[in-house]
Amino acid sequence: MPLPASYPRFRGKKRALLVGISYAATKYELRGTVNDVNCMSFLLRERFGFPADSILVLTQEDGDTYRVPTRANLLLAMRWLVEGCSSGDSLVLHFSGHGLQKLDTNGDEVDGYDEALCPVDFEQAGVILDDEINETIVRPLGPGVKLHAIVDTCHSGTILDLSYLCRLSRTGYWQWENHSRRPELAKGTSGGLAISISGCSDSQNSSDTTALAGATSTGAMTYSFIKAVESEPGTTYGRLLSAMRATIRDNGGDLGIPGPLGAFFRRVITFSCAQEPQLCASEPFDIYRKPFLL
């Protein structure tokens, strides 16, 4: 299927897909996901120089039928994100919504479960498995292309099926854990670099989070990410991940994001210390030497 004409046609070196799903009028309803997307858009434009016309936003409140985050539209938008990418491109996927686990059927998961994103119509059309996400946005990445996925859901630790998961202790000790149970399936990139920063480990689910005043602790991940980036420009991946975890453990700390973005957050956030952000990558690197750049 061709990409919708309403999707951005700008083909600069920076491109982003931002998805916020509220599941309005269902028992799964979330509040704050659209706000997460707005805050992430602001961060990308003001801090990292992403042009506004290179950012595609999908929410179910959008009047454009192709920008409602159905399963079909999400897969189309993921195709848009990576289509025509070339060396020097920086791509970002941000997803705020529900995630779940399903039994692994092809033996490529260490824990026996696939992770999945829930589109707004997941009960009718189905979820999007990590295998499908990997095939759509990871494998097409050519040399010199960089993708960051910032995924604010339950069960999101290895949501891109990347080969390496970073184990980081509270004392700062770290090591990469190889999750390529079946290397012959070739789930790596085509020479580029893919990195995911996710809200919690694969085993953590919605019972590990809480809701208060219409906010969910999945939104705490987006908040902790933005706070870490804004508080320490030019940080490394290791310091970023440590700062995010500390914010969640400290129940948000002083709940203060410096600069103009601070005024952009206007909701109560509930944190769960059981929720621990994770870092995965298509190749290992020194997390305390590599600067975090989008």
UniProtKB/TrEMBL annotation:
<dbReference type="InterPro" id="IPR011600">
    <property type="entry name" value="Pept_C14_caspase"/>
</dbReference>
<dbReference type="GO" id="GO:0006508">
    <property type="term" value="P:proteolysis"/>
</dbReference>
<feature type="domain" description="Peptidase C14 caspase">
    <location>
        <begin position="13"/>
        <end position="281"/>
    </location>
</feature>
<dbReference type="Pfam" id="PF00656">
    <property type="entry name" value="Peptidase_C14"/>
</dbReference>
<dbReference type="GO" id="GO:0005737">
    <property type="term" value="C:cytoplasm"/>
</dbReference>
<protein>
    <recommendedName>
        <fullName>Peptidase C14 caspase domain-containing protein</fullName>
    </recommendedName>
</protein>
<dbReference type="InterPro" id="IPR029030">
    <property type="entry name" value="Caspase-like_dom_sf"/>
</dbReference>
<dbReference type="InterPro" id="IPR050452">
    <property type="entry name" value="Metacaspase"/>
</dbReference>
<comment type="similarity">
    <text>Belongs to the peptidase C14B family.</text>
</comment>
<dbReference type="GO" id="GO:0004197">
    <property type="term" value="F:cysteine-type endopeptidase activity"/>
</dbReference>
